[in-house]
Amino acid sequence: MFKQARWNEPLLLELSDNICSNVENIPEGFPKELYREKLSLPNVKEPRVIRHFVRLSQMNFGVDLGTYPLGSCTMKYNPKLADRIVSNKKIRDVHPLQPIDTVQGVLQILYELSQYLAEVTGTSKTSLIPAAGAHGELVGALMIRAAIKDKGEVSTRKEIIIPDSAHGTNPASASMAGFKVVKIPSDENGLVDVEALKSIVGNTTAGIMLTVPNTLGIFEKDILEVVKTVKDVGGYAYYDGANLNALLGKARPGDMGFDIIHLNLHKTFATPHGGGGPGAGPVCVSNDMAEFIPVPTVEFDGKKYYLNYSVPKSIGHVKGFYGNVSVLIRAYVYIRLLGASGLKEAAERAVLNSNYLLSLLNRDFYEVPYGDRVPRKHEFVVKISNKLIERGASTKDLAKALLDYGVHAPTVYFPLIVEEALMVEPTETESFDEIERYAKVLNEVAEKAYEDPERIRKTPYNTSVGRIDEVKASHPKTLCVNWSRIRKSG
Ligand SMILES: Cc1ncc(COP(=O)(O)O)c(C=O)c1O
Predict the structure, then answer these.
(1) Residue 437 and residue 459: Cα distance in Å, rounded?
(2) Higher pLDDT, residue 302 or 486
(3) How far apart are CA 447 and CA 277, in angstroms?
(4) C-alpha angle with apex 171: 168 to 173, nearest 5 degrees?
(5) Model confidence over 231-285: pLDDT tens digits?
(6) What phi and psi values does residue 436 have, to the nearest 5 degrees?
(7) Using alpha carbons only, what angle is made at residue 331 by residues 329 and 334, rounded to the nearest 5 degrees?
(8) How far is CA 240 from CA 13, 135, 144, in A?
(9) Ligand 1 center to residue 155 CA distance, Å?
């Protein structure tokens, strides 16, 4: 069984408070209480420093360490080549305020990336600026609003329809853009109920936002009818394409009639994800929507690349400068590395891995909500069985127990439409061996939970920290990163 690094001989960086009370030569205007006569810097030998930081790094978990099948997050392996390329000083040292003539190379990359993304989504124009998926959604919803305003319908078309199987950010984004969210329930197969949709669309409908595949990992088989139903009443169709790794090279949202698609480059195109770091949520739009795109866009006049700020009906600026360029370039490298056939293969492998893992699970412990009749794509959702719940075990217990095996738990308690949910996305970069090992571990923790629910409730046993107070842990005011304070508070 996996044993994580324990805190051993901690490096105490205690700085004595050498505040100077009686010092001459304090520069005028400098607050006296902040002045230090001499700094008491720790005097620690190199091996101790190295061991301290290596030990710290071992207390964490990441995609470079093991399987990390967080459903909805696509925590796949990011090729190191992309990091190496963005660390090249020709890219790393470029400043957004440099004269355009001196950044032609970077602009060429951004321009070509825009074209590639338009190509894979079947659209005409791309904005690379949004900094995350949810930001892309907000930009898309604002573009729908601008288009409706342009038609003089802003006072009537106030509703955005969103299925209950959508990603949680969809209703938040629509609401931030000033729309009323109308929720439609999924049918017994986890799909949009087309008859229910037909009964609620009308001249108050601004559009629909569809997460595809949805949060159950299911592709909407009636997608063409869904899009047509909304467009027939004058609404717009928005495609949350954060899960495009299930469809790359197989099907294009633009061909299905969608007006706006956002992508999560930090999911689909293997750029770093998580930890609150920079992301990229480009928005790809149809011809009709192109006139509302945020500025600036990256253009090419046949000789030179340039930034275009004159888009008369643009929704305007949505972020400083041109997006998170280092993330965009990593995505560009990933696309160039794989090529069209590689991207398609990535999608096939993502779907295969997810279905393979699902097929290996013990159905006595893991049930598939919304039935097995509809195939799953790149991710799937299971719920723990009543057999386990009656023994007093919960999804949380199983997730914690997994950590003792040196793997990360799947996403838990999401989507909200499934109680005691585990949302699993193995991703395309896991090998079959890893998938088999993960399935074995999932089955083993369920068996152990059934045999000895008392023990599982105290897991994990082998990690640096055990169960934490999750409310406190995510509350910034109580965040404490200072060793001496941790020590004092015990
Ligand atoms: C389907 C879907 N939509 C939207 C988002 C939001 O993206 P972000 O976290 O970059 O804001 C995610 C995030 O994982 C997602 O999975």
Answers:
(1) 20
(2) 302
(3) 37
(4) 100
(5) 999 999 999 999 999 999 999 999 999 999 999 999 999 998 866 568 999 999 9
(6) -65, -40
(7) 115
(8) 47, 12, 14
(9) 30
| Residue whose pair of structure tokens reads 């599982």 in the numeric block | 456
Beta bridge partners of 259: none
Instruction: Convert the pLDDT of each residue in 124-149 to its tens digit.
Output: 999 999 999 999 999 999 999 999 99
3-class DSSP state of 209: strand
Atom number, ligand 1, closest to the C-alpha of residue 135: 11
Distance 131 CA to ligand 1 centre (A): 11
Q: What is the pLDDT of residues 23-50, one digit of tens each?
A: 566 777 878 777 777 777 777 889 988 9
Instruction: Determine the distance separating the centroid of ligand 1 and the alpha carbon of 169, expressed in angstroms.
Output: 7
**Bridge partner list, 238:** 209, 260
* pTM summary value: 0.89
Q: Would you identify the CATH topology of the domain 346-462?
A: Aspartate Aminotransferase, domain 1 (3.90.1150)
20 CA from centroid of ligand 1 (Å): 50
Our CA angle for 69, 75, 81, nearest 5°, is 140
Token pair, residue 310, equals 């004159």
Where in the chain are the domains? 81-337, 346-462
CATH code for the part of the protein at 81-337: 3.40.640.10
Q: What does DSSP assign to residue 144?
A: H
Distance of CA 9 to the CA centre of its chain: 36
Any residues with Cβ below 6 Å from ligand 1, and which?
Answer: 72-73, 132-134, 167, 169, 211, 240, 242-243, 264, 267, 279, 281
